[in-house]
Predict the structure of Aminoglycoside phosphotransferase family protein.
Amino acid sequence: MNHKVWLLGRSIGVGAHILGERVTRPRARAADDVPVSGATLTPEWLTAVLCAAVPGAEVTGYEVAGGSVGTATRTALRVTYNDAGQEAGLPEALFAKTTTAFAQRILLGGGQMIDGETRFFRDFRPQVEMEAPIGYWGAADPGSWRSIALMEDIAETRGAEFIEPTARIGRDRMEDLVRNLAKLHRTFWRHPDIADLKNTRQALRAYLAAIDMRKRCEVGLRRADAVIPESLRGDADRLWAGVERAIALATDELPPTLLHGDPHIGQTYVTGAGRMGYVDWQVVMRGGWAHDFAYTVNSGCDPADRRAWDRELLAAYLDELGTVGGEAPTFDQAWTAYRQQALFAYAAWAFTIGRAVYQPKMQSEQTCLTLLERITAAIDDHESLAALEV
């Protein structure tokens, strides 16, 4: 209740900030400014955040090259520099993600995710060799819950195409994706830099404080009834018990590593060179590897493909993971963890389709139904609730 009272108070404060922004239309000029959106940047601000390490370099202008709106407002930018900036090879094709709308700020701020992408690009991305965008700047304002992450526009720089969540993904691409995930996990396995990240249990509590996630999952299960296996229909209470048990295991029983946190197939892309990577690092957290692995595989594979491939995909993941200081699970241990960790992905998509009026519409109904069909088929096939003893 205390957190809900706090969130109500923060909502009033954030709403007041948004009203003020609409009146004053602030423009970001100094590095300490946090822009309202990618459309309110200035050459002065871009110079401050992109050119600081290059004496004499300046941004001479920029143009907006497209964008979209979801949990964040996304703006593609094309930046021009003076001669010093051009000679230094400063980035020209960028992508800005901002929390511009009230619902975005309440969802990400109230869920304690407002600075997740900033942390990833600033602290973690430089340490790992994997397929993911490069970040150039990030900041969040604690009062207004404005935030920005400025990163590489991989569509331009790498010829990336973003994966349509409802599309069928081939086996080779799925293997490349889980190997990419293993590179992330092995790099940060029990790493001291992840110690201050929220863990998987804290993340779930933050979601529950910001949104009545359990209730929204119950509503979502009803709305998706046509694609849910018969054995799980109407069993919202048992499924939620499975979510809580899976989160407890990911927090307390599995060795901690850096998790993407929300690695569904719609957060992935394929480069022009054919490599699979991840985007949208807003909910990075600390927890057990199988949380990410199960979410990726079960959201990305059509049920028939998953049944044919998931053992091979797990073997490929473990091969890429390596020994991790002697803590790598055996295949049988990993298989059990994979079965158990199927539940959070269910919750993520049940609450998305079960959204209340105050939640932003993050995904289409068809995307929600497709991914819930895949994920709940995996829960049913692998008897995940029995594996969790709920």
Observations:
- The longest strand covers residues 59-69.
- Residues 159-387 form a domain with the Aminoglycoside 3'-phosphotransferase; Chain: A, domain 2 fold (CATH 3.90.1200.10).
